Amino acid sequence: MAVELGRFGVWHAALNWGPELAAGLESAGYGTLWLGSSPAEDLRDAEVLLASTNSVAVGTSIVNMWKSDAAAVAASYHRLEELHPGRFVLGVGIGHRERTGEYKSPYETIVDYLDALDEGKVPVDRRALAALGPRVLKLAAARTAGAIPYLTTPEHTKQAREVLGEDRLLVPEQKVVLETDEEIARTVGRDYLAGYLQLSNYTNNLKRLGFSDEDFEDGGSDRLIDALVLHGTAVEVAEGLTAHLEAGADQVVIQQLGKEGPDLLPGYEALATVLF
Question: How many domains, the chain?
Fold first, then answer.
């Protein structure tokens, strides 16, 4: 990719991001700060992260195609590129059927949106696509730098690499809880995942990976929660993160659960001492 991302990044919604956390993560050695949960088309939250740091990459994961006009997003991309050249990655995606009022053909909508980004002169190698299933993964390989899958496992990473080919970007997200008590960690994981496990694009993908209907009952089976939310010491969590790299990821994006804002930094610093 045209932007240097590093082997590990961090994902959070705008609510948790701020100058202190951004600067601290850059100092700790993380390569990319990913702004989640449908950032607005003006990309002002991404601009704050760029302005709060010196050289770390910043990406969106993801700009929601249903909510954000492609032409406006393209204009925002160019503004950020002028202010902070070579540091921003535009991650886009289709969002969720259950949370979208006028949900038409997802695939056609993605194609049309990428066409509009072409018209807005957003370079192919500076954009990435949220992709889970084989068809959209192939589209990510053909029309963007690659894929940024969310809520996946190393097995999905392995399968996605096979679909994308060796020369396309693959950046999966992985949730973690730095907690050695399994029941406490699983409770944190279940609480966070409650809404996600109601969304068909995620549940369908997880079923393709071998999870059954029973795994989604009562907030998620231990097997499902343990796969989606790594827990334990920093060393134990790091082993699970590197499994994505071994499966073919270019970067693993870490989302630490259980704390908020600047309180997240000590956990990421503890992981950094093991990962870097």
Answer: 1
